[in-house]
Amino acid sequence: MTTVRDLQAMAGDEQITMLTAYDAVTAGLVEAAGVDIILVGDSVGNAVLGHEDTLPVTVDEIASRVGAVARGTEDALVVADMPFLSFGVDGSKSVSNCGRMLKEEGANAVKLESGPHTVELTQRLTDLGIPVMAHLGLTPQSVNQTGYTQQATDREEATEILELARAHEDAGAFALVLEHVPANLAAQVTEALDIPTIGIGAGSDCDGQVLVFTDVVGLADSSPPFAEQFGDVRGEIETAVSDYVEAVESGEFPGQQHADTAENVDDLY
Ligand code: KIV
Predict the structure, then answer these.
(1) 86-133 pLDDT per residue, tens
(2) pTM above 0.70, yes or no
(3) Which residues are bridge partners to 182 per DSSP?
């Protein structure tokens, strides 16, 4: 089993790979391909569940997906992405929502979209044995305040990110996701911290990279500008399903090899 310490030991030596997955089958494939961290992202909301953004995703939805991903993997570190308002509102509820992911579903850590309000919580969770991955820069749960544009492009905001990164490291966060921030800011945050940084739209100087599964395999109908498509799963599905429809409609499927007959059931009608 990969631990947060194993990942910390990788930082600076080898790039850490992280990818989202939302079900057991995909998680198994992602792990077999060598991904170190599987994030059960609240991106499930827009990537899979048909929502406009991540805000409607519930604790139950993430919990069910975390359980599936944990069952589908053996070694990868499974991180549960805590949904909007499941943390940071009420202290003990935050702890029980996060704890549930480890205690009942098999996650190894949680990710919190971070800000000044998550420093204390990060400390509390870490003290309780719940490893926390922090997340700064573009935090999609704040879409109504920031939109999806690049963050921290001015000195003041960039300095705040650096300070918050240090505060979360001091509070015990084991890693930090930096999303859609200038590459030169991400490079400086990476230099300033001992814990690994995992970038998404944050350049190549982070200790690792994360993307959303549906963007990487080419299943998403639209992707952010910083994502890269490494396959055409959408095209594969379109071809397979239309071939199936055509085969059924033409009578080509099922063939004799797809069904058996039983001697005693002739002449019933
Ligand atoms: O929900 C998610 O998939 C994420 C990653 C993009 C970091 O938070």
Answers:
(1) 999 999 999 999 999 999 999 999 999 999 999 999 999 999 999 999
(2) yes
(3) none
Q: Whose CA is nearest to atom 1 of ligand 1?
A: 41
Minimum CA distance residue for ligand 1 atom 3: 41
Q: Specify the fold of 4-228.
A: TIM Barrel (3.20.20)
CA 78 to CA 101: how far, in whole Å?
Answer: 10
CB-based pocket (< 6 A), ligand 1: 20, 39, 41-43, 81, 177, 179, 200, 210, 212
Q: Which atom of ligand 1 is nearest to the CA of 20?
A: 3
**249 tagged catalytic:** no
Give me the residue spans of the domains in the chain: 4-228, 232-259
Instruction: Tell me 97's DSSP state.
Output: H
